Amino acid sequence: MAEMKTAIGLMSGTSMDGIDVALVRTDGEAVVERGPFLSVPYEPAFRDRLKQALEDAKAIRHRDERPDDLSRMERALTLRHAEAVALFLQQEKLKREDVDLIGFHGQTVLHRPDEALTVQLGDGPLLAAETGIDVVYDMRANDMLHGGQGAPLVPVYHQALAHQIPAADWPVCFVNIGGISNLTFLDRDGTIIGFDSGPGNTLIDQWVEAHAGIPYDDGGRIASEGGVIMGLAERYLDNPFFTASKRRSLDRNDFRPPEGHEAELSDGARTLAYVSSAAILKSAGHLPSSPKTYVICGGGRLNRSIMGDLVTLAGEKGATVLTAEQAGFNGDAMEAEAWAYLAVRSARGLPLTFPGTTGVREPVSGGVLEPSALLRTERLMLTRWQDGDEEQLAHLHGAPETSIHVGHGQPWEPDYARQRLAGWRAGFQRYGISTLKLMTADGSDFVGRAGIGWYEDAQVHQLAYSIVQSEWGKGYASEIASALVGWFFEAEIGERLEAMAHVDNAASLHILKKTGFREIGIRSVRGEPCRFFEMLRSDYADLAKASPSRNPTS
Q1: Annotation: binding site
Q2: What is the pLDDT of residue 462?
Q3: Which sites bind ATP (predicted)?
């Protein structure tokens, strides 16, 4: 059984109303434990900036371009996501060490599947640096590289949830009504099909904002006072999107709201609500069989007019319509939950998209993993261990000369490395400090391991480090040891820090003395003589005053 991971999902959808934050524990497959949820709204001025970003993004021809104000917008958006994570952790009384991954969607500002071009604003490395948590981002691009539409990505999460629905109610169709609506069809034989089904809330939002000065039709109140202008509705439903043999994903600009003269406020809102519902049923006509149950998620399920039309139209086909809550889920949280789930799948290399969901040629994974730097120096960074790192650790201590003074004194095999990793990870989870993975500052190369551990029995914090043999002689050990000492005392972790080295380990003995430790005696460790050293807070204060550069970069 795969290891369970705790992940936070962040979603800023096409409605651009704010950031949804959700937590799940999952193995990235069939096991999903849904946790708390938080929605952090954008202030009106920031929503206006996002709308301008949609206009600026129209000039993009390559996905890494950020014309006009988009670069500044991306940074501002990312920092708001970091603030949302901090608020969520505070609200739920969680530490960053409690979370393994963040799944970061970002804000879609351009989606042109026919050009294999999709752009989500969001700086994964910046988010990882700000939160101190590993981030998986940019999860749509790899699908497009393999011939997919880049959307929808949520179906595989729907598949994991659907096992809670009784077999008699299948086939089941999950429908997310956000700015754009999308559906996931699931059958008991393992069939999974997903595609965008048409405009969801985006036309209604644009309509009421333009004609009533409010961002959305809360609960469908405006629509409830109007009537459907069937000729206008049919104009939308006659769009070739609904009859095309190939399903494609939609951009927010593929459907435009009516002109002001075509309807008064409430009739326009009512007509567009009907379009949202009818579009779902019309698109469902492309499915291999009729669903027995529709589970409605997203903000659109709160619009009474949309839901009333859905119940009527689906009922005509013998299907039942349930809100996500009636099915036992959280309709507001589901997309953010999905991004947490997808982050775990991505980190495990599992497929995110399938031929039946995005049209990709074969099931493919995706996403970019950005490790968080828990401590950074000019050349190095410390980050958390990942699944599979036991191979690198075994290589680190795989030769007699690199293992003689560490562990059991013999070259490390993967199983032994896995045991040590499990201990370090458990220590980090419990205390927030431990031996961590040492990488070059850009995250490209494995350098070794380093950190500070808390030894409960001896009631002592102890410094440790080991450098890959091929990197010896570059001063990495001195650099990370000095940075760890600085971090330990500057962060006020403790009053005393200890270190040790085998009496024959001349290199380590030299580094500890150079770093400012003073020897306090020789003791036996696993039957071997070792020299022990200590540094007190007062010692560090004197050293830092004499050499301010000792302080860690971050």
Answers
A1: 13-20
A2: 97
A3: 13-20
